[in-house]
Amino acid sequence: MITTRFAPSPTGYLHIGGLRTALYNYLYARANGGKFLLRIEDTDLKRNSQEATKAIIDAFKWCNLDYDDEILYQSKRFDVYKKYIDILLKEKKAYKCYMSKEELDELRQEQIKNKLRPKYNGKYRDFTGTPPSGIEPVIRIKAPLSGEIYFNDGVKGDVKFDASDILDDFIIARSDGSPTYNFTVVVDDALMGVTDVIRGDDHLSNTPKQIILYEALNFKIPKFYHVAMINGTDGQKLSKRHGATDVMEYKNMGYLSEALLNFLVRLGWSHADDEIFSMDELKKLFNPNHLSKSASTFNQSKLEWLNQHYIKTASFERLKFELKNFGLNLDEVKHSELLINELKERSKTLLEMANMANSILNAPNSYEEKAYAKFINTQSLELLDKFSKILDGDKTAREYEDLTNKFLEQNGLKLKNLAQPLRIAITGSSVSPSIFEMMEIIGSSEVKNRIQNLINKG
Ligand code: GLU
């Protein structure tokens, strides 16, 4: 069975690059009736907090990404890691190294002076003497001294590392007994039965070390897929400099999670030339063999385009529910469905939609300066006043349209003479949905009030 996992280190929030990794692993498992597991890499007890873990879980919930089994917390598994360290020591595949920090620094300086790559010199690899007193040893793995570490990466193809060049007897447990990153990853991936690891290619250099550990522990090596990074438009690795990187910030900016997921899946994966994928489709057709080798570019306008698509196709009930997060409660609003339909076409985000809805539902406190200067004058105020006198009782948008056309005809005017001043009276701005629909939404007496407010100001 395909078993994948997402293994974030809780740093305070879920990065959108992390969400993409999670999504790929999730989809691969779901597309194959496999398992998708979540593991929190919280061994750095000083740095990791419960809030940071909660931030990851909240982001998963928002995105509707469900995981199988219980979440695994590395911080609760120190005894498991110790057990495997002891096995390696017993089998002499790992050893205690008593080199002091000073000695190690000296060695490093010497190597740098001689233009060598700084590297542990294997002093305690086959040590049989009496260890120096007063030093708590670290545990090092006996890495191969020569040969190649090879693996076939699902994205990059054949990857080779020269053992003598790249590797070291790297540390698997620190002097306080705590296991190191590569060690815990390998033990957990093996014990969780992970068959496929999809992760960012910033982890590529960890992989040969992990392969050495898999071999030492006689664990089956999973298939690796190292996905190219996401860059900003300037070609640099995506960071806060380029905009929001926290998944939940996208929620707060008014993106629907399906738009963000659709956007992220395409940053590094493709299926023909298709751009729009529902989660149901993705859960059927995602295949990691179509992951891209080259870095992708985070393109904000494409995300907006997708968000607009998902807003347009979302049901009224869904949008009504989502808009509550933006302070818009439509429960008591009479023509809320019409309002939402009018705004769907013109909203890139839910935030924009909520703001526009509020500007229709509530009388303006102020008027946009430029629009006011351009369209409001004695003549237009007189026209509005005259128009307001024919408004009576609530009507449908089409009835308002007929009434307005008749009024304009009788006065020898065109719609453009009335539309902008009326928009400004109703919303305070010259950009809004159709005036007829807006009149239906707020009703005649409210239109009259707002016209009167504008006249009183003028
Ligand atoms: N905890 C690692 C990270 O957050 C991921 C480990 C892995 O995927 O192997 O970058």
From TrEMBL:
Enzyme Commission number: 6.1.1.17
All copies of domain Aminoacyl-tRNA synthetase class I anticodon-binding, residue ranges: 329-455
Single GO biological process annotation from the record: glutamyl-tRNA aminoacylation
Catalytic activity line of the entry: tRNA(Glu) + L-glutamate + ATP = L-glutamyl-tRNA(Glu) + AMP + diphosphate; tRNA(Glu) + L-glutamate + ATP = L-glutamyl-tRNA(Gln) + AMP + diphosphate
Motif 'KMSKS' region mapped to chain: 237-241
Domain Glutamyl/glutaminyl-tRNA synthetase class Ib catalytic residues, every copy: 2-305
Gene3D superfamilies: 1.10.10.350, HUPs
Signal peptide region: none
HAMAP family: Glu_tRNA_synth_type1 (MF_00022)
Subunit structure: Monomer.
Protein name: Glutamate--tRNA ligase
Gene transcribed to yield this protein: gltX
